[in-house]
Each structure stands twice: as C-alpha cells, then as structure tokens.
Amino acid sequence: MQTGSVPGRERPVDTATRRTRALLMELGNEARLGRLEHGLSQCDVGRAIGLSRSQVSRVERGLAPNVSVRVLARLEAAVGLDLAVRTYPGGQPIRDAAHVALLRRLRAVIDPGWQWRTEVPVGPPGDRRAWDAVIGRPGTQVAVEAETRVRDLQSLERRVSLKQGDWGAGSVVLLLADTRSNRLVVRNYTDIILGTFPVDGRGALAALQSGIAPNGNAVILL
C-alpha cells in the first residue's frame, strides 16, 4: 500500500550518519589544533593514549568512523581538551511495525476520499519535526500524531501543541492504540484531554468516516 511519503525527505538514521561524519571531522580538527598548540607530535599523543601515529592521524582527519567515545576523550585530554557529549530533542524517531499498523488501521476506516500523506514536515526547511500523517481535502488538513503506548501524556501534549502552533493551520488527531494501558492514561488525564483535545474521539472518527474534518483536536483510540 502506498503511503504518499514526501519524496527526498532524509531518514533520521541517514541524518545521524551525516551529522556523525561532520562531528568526527570537527573533533579531529580540534584535536589536531590542540596538539600543534602544545608542540606535540602525533607520535607523542599516540604513545600517551596507546595508539599508533597513523591511528592518531586518521582520527584527526575524521577518517576513523568507528572510533569510540573513550578513545576520543583520551585523545582530546592528551592535547589539553575536555570532551563533552550531550543529546538534544531532534526529529522523528524510527517507527516500529505496531506504529505503522496503527496508522494503517485509521486509513482503512476513514472515507477513502481523504488524501493521505506520511512524515509531513511541520515547519520550514531544516525543521526535522514531522507529523506522522496528514489527511486532507481541498481547503482542509488534519494532522495525525500516532502513539502505540503512552508513557507521559503531559509531555506528548506539549509536543503536539508546539507542533500545531508552528504548523499554523488545521486540527490534530492524537491517534492511540486502543489498549488497557492507554485507556487508563486517558482516564487519568481528563483535564489535559479536555483542554487540548476537546472533541469527542468517537465523534471525530465518525466525521472522518463521513469525509468531514473534526471541529477541533481529538483523541481517537483505535
């Protein structure tokens, strides 16, 4: 079944590979500049951390794709630098088979006249966030954010709200797998549900099945 994916959109794993190459080049160059600043040779640094001169050279030139964080930290320390590693919120994570199946269930039960697109960018070029799907008709767009298992509804609500604010138009369906765990989360956070997703889920699903956009945001258990 075709999903209407946006052509040319870089996969998260490919983005990570590209960024890793650039990061290794940058770290290697910083190590080289630090070594030269302190008048050290590649042999000097290699002896201090248990690498050969050629290995040090490859790291400095960003040509050691499998170098470990431990080796990088030791190399930077040998030339007077401290290595710091952090993570930041990024783009969409990879999705498993259950997530794909949940989106397919929704597509199978709504009116076939809806145009269906997946992994639709939220903001301008460079913004790596995306809606899991956007369904549309002329003049109408409904974003879909799908989750098979909700662990933190407050965090999920903030993420959806920020994406909707930057998207600028349309309503959002938070599509949840109809499991005991998810039903319990929804019951326990009624205030969040009513505040951000005020449209009844069954009514929203009935509207989509009739080819009509929900009149606002909704949570649909499916």
Quick recap:
This protein is 47% helix and 15% strand.
Q: Biggest β-sheet: count, sense, barrel?
A: 5 strands, mixed
Number of domains: 2
The count of helical stretches stands at 9
Helical fraction: 40-55%
Strand content: 5-15%
Radius of gyration: 24 Å
- The number of distinct β-strands equals 5
In the CATH hierarchy, the third-tier topology of the largest domain is known as: Trna Endonuclease, Chain: A, domain 1
Account of the 3D structure:
This protein is α/β, with parallel strands linked by helices. It contains 9 helices and 5 strands; from the N terminus they run αααααβββαβαααβ. The chain has a 5-stranded mixed sheet, sandwiched between helices. Helix 1 packs parallel to helix 4 and helix 2 crosses helix 3 (about 55-60). The chain is elongated.
Topology:
Layout: H1 12-37, H2 42-49, H3 53-60, H4 69-78, H5 97-109, E1 115-121, E2 130-137, E3 140-147, H6 153-167, E4 171-176, H7 180-188, H8 190-196, H9 201-209, E5 218-221
Structural descriptors:
single chain, 222 residues, alpha/beta, 434 Repressor (Amino-terminal Domain), Trna Endonuclease, Chain: A, domain 1, 2 domains, five-stranded mixed beta sheet, 9 helices, 5 strands
